[in-house]
Amino acid sequence: MADAESVPVEGWDFSWLNGRATEERPSWRYSRLIAERMPHASAALDIQTGGGEVLAGVPWLPALTVATESWPPNIVRASQRLRPRGVAVIADDDEPRLPFADGVFDLVISRHPVVTWWNEIARVLRPGGAYLSQQVGPRSVVELTEFFLGPQPPNSHRDPESARQDAEAAGLEIVDLRMERLRTEFHDVGAVIYFLRKVIWIVPGFTVDRYRAELKALHDRIQAEGPFVAHATRFLIEARKPA
């Protein structure tokens, strides 16, 4: 518990969980899709890049590639990763308006955005340009949320059909939309602590002190029954601006 409470959590690198937690990966392989599209782009934008992990793993990037990020620790980490590759990392508050002129990019990407500002994406895309995003779906790892907070009401937040409607309302055409439910296992209570510190919307306001009794109960459950199982939901959406 002490290790999980003290380890840094900036960026979206989850390697600290190796051997302590597992999550199925979506069948569409988002990083591969990005790598396939980048060679055909002349200008690309990565919104809410986190620590720059996705772009850093792309073999080829357009000469004009830009990333935005709002959280200061992530801005530092992304700059360290991406500046050697010629990517400009711009501090942005993740609120409209995006700090770019109209029709600048022919490819915009975003992995797990907090909010998708569809009108802004449509504005900065060139005619014929595309937005490709992997997003967190509805009630993702809700089993973990409910362990700490009790039953949660159903809601339409992060629903892929809502994303479709919002994209179309902004004037974009949907090229691809699919969702998958992915088995996630936590093998010890430290993995849960690290995950909840990093993915802060799963249990808002989480701290070890605040939830020490629940963590003890979870530890005992894992020791007696094996890994705590939850299910992540992810959806892929690709939208194109009409030429």
From TrEMBL:
<dbReference type="GO" id="GO:0032259">
    <property type="term" value="P:methylation"/>
</dbReference>
<dbReference type="Pfam" id="PF08241">
    <property type="entry name" value="Methyltransf_11"/>
</dbReference>
<dbReference type="InterPro" id="IPR052939">
    <property type="entry name" value="23S_rRNA_MeTrnsfrase_RlmA"/>
</dbReference>
<dbReference type="InterPro" id="IPR029063">
    <property type="entry name" value="SAM-dependent_MTases_sf"/>
</dbReference>
<feature type="domain" description="Methyltransferase type 11">
    <location>
        <begin position="45"/>
        <end position="131"/>
    </location>
</feature>
<dbReference type="GO" id="GO:0008757">
    <property type="term" value="F:S-adenosylmethionine-dependent methyltransferase activity"/>
</dbReference>
<keyword id="KW-0808">Transferase</keyword>
<protein>
    <submittedName>
        <fullName>Methyltransferase type 11</fullName>
    </submittedName>
</protein>
<dbReference type="InterPro" id="IPR013216">
    <property type="entry name" value="Methyltransf_11"/>
</dbReference>
<keyword id="KW-0489">Methyltransferase</keyword>
